[in-house]
Each structure stands twice: as structure tokens, then as C-alpha cells.
Design goal:
Blueprint: H1 10-26, E1 37-38, E2 45-53, H2 60-65, E3 74-78, E4 85-87, H3 89-98, E5 102-109, H4 112-118, E6 122-127, E7 139-140, E8 144-146, E9 149-151, E10 156-160, E11 163-167, H5 172-194, H6 199-202
Parallel strand pairs: 2-3, 3-5, 4-5, 5-6
Antiparallel strand pairs: 1-6, 2-7, 2-10, 8-9, 10-11
Helix pairs in contact: 1-5
């Protein structure tokens, strides 16, 4: 099957649709563990992934990534779910200088007030004051399974208040197109609802009126 080219305005169109609509449109197991949440309300990411893995309590891989990550990428960081302050204000400043547009990490972060002030979008499993060592880096730029979704460099990450999804780059354009078709259909349904029709009728569920 021919892969559709990714539209240049993918970011803006994905923001209109949101992660939930795109997840449903993808028909793929691309949703990340729902415990990974935005650090500040309204944070949004739509960007290609740059994956890396940290050992528990060790953030050396993040520092290495700053010299390798393509500009415009979002860091997707596995830690094995270990909660520590892998990321804070110093790495945020370094990331902005490197052209990184966001962070998704299954561990912890800190310096929350600074992250909010800088409006740097971060999605994390937790918050921790505990620092980290710099001793080893399991992988930088290599694919891995990130909390329920496979991630490779260039896969598309969409993250908002509903959650985080990682769409394989080969499916990103198709998912966007199907997401917009789904949103259009839902808009028509909501218009019909305002005109007095019911969800049972619109979703062909009227047979349940006599069963329930």
C-alpha cells in the first residue's frame, strides 16, 4: 500500500481534532498508558518522535539526545516507570535551544513552576524532587515499546489533555484524513441532536428501547 505524504499543516490540523479522535481514526494500538498526564493544563504536542531509554534514576541518555535529536522533535523517554526528577529547568532550556518541542516521559520531572512559565509541553507519570545520576544510556534514537505503543524515530506523537498517542509514520497521513472525516460526521450528528433527534436514533440503537 502506498504511504500518503504527510501534510505540512499536520500539526495545526491534529490540534483541531485532538488525540481522542485521531486514536479512534487510526484503528491502531497506539494509545499510551493513561497515567502519563500533562504537567500543566492545555499542554499540546504534535510532532515527530525521538525515542530514548533511561536506566532507573539515570538521565545520561537525555543529555546525549540533546546533541542528536532533529529539530522539531518531541522526546519520548522510557524509564521503566521509575519516578525521579529526570527533567527540569536546565534540560528544558537545553531542549528549547536544540529545537525540541516537547517531552513525553514515563518517569518523573521537577521544576514545575519553570516548565509552566516557559510553556514547554511535558507529559509525565509523576513529579519528583529527587535528582538523577549520569552513568549509562540504554538506547538513544532506537525503537522500543513505550507503555503500550511502539515508538520509532519519526513516528507522530499527539498529546493533549485527553492523553498521548503515537501514530506510526506510515499511518499518520491516513489517520489525519480519517480523523477529519470522523469529525465531520460527528459535527453533523451534534447538529441533529440540537434539532431534537436522539443518540439512539442517530447511532441505529433504537432496538434497545424495548430491551433495556
Amino acid at each position: 500500500m502506498t504511504m500518503l505524504p504527510l501534510p505540512l499543516d499536520f500539526h495545526a490540523r491534529a490540534k483541531v481534532l485532538g488525540s481522542s479522535t485521531l486514536y479512534e481514526a487510526s484503528h491502531l494500538p497506539c494509545a499510551v498508558d493513561s497515567a502519563i498526564r500533562p504537567i500543566w493544563d492545555g499542554a499540546f504536542i504534535s510532532a515527530p518522535a525521538y525515542p530514548l531509554e533511561c536506566s532507573p534514576g539515570d538521565n545520561l541518555a537525555l543529555h546525549l539526545a540533546m546533541e542528536r535529536v532533529p529539530r522539531g522533535s518531541v522526546l519520548v523517554v522510557g524509564t521503566g516507570g521509575f519516578i525521579a526528577g529526570y527533567w527540569g529547568e536546565v534540560l528544558t532550556v537545553a531542549a528549547e535551544a536544540a529545537g525540541v518541542v516537547g517531552l513525553v516521559i514515563d518517569g518523573g520531572v521537577r521544576d514545575i513552576a519553570a516548565l509552566k512559565k516557559r510553556q514547554f509541553p511535558v507529559f509525565a507519570r509523576g513529579i519528583s524532587v529527587k535528582g538523577t545520576v549520569k552513568a549509562c544510556a540504554p538506547s538513544v534514537g532506537q525503537p522500543f515499546n513505550f507503555n503500550g505503543a511502539l515508538v520509532a524515530q519519526g513516528d507522530w506523537v499527539v498529546a493533549d489533555d485527553d492523553g498521548v498517542i503515537i501514530i506510526p509514520k506510515s499511518d499518520a497521513a491516513r489517520t489525519l484524513a480519517e480523523g477529519e472525516a470522523r469529525a465531520s460526521k460527528e459535527a453533523q450528528m451534534m447538529q441533529a441532536l440540537t434539532e431534537g433527534r436522539s443518540t439512539l436514533e442517530l447511532m441505529n440503537l433504537t432496538e434497545w428501547r424495548t430491551r433495556a
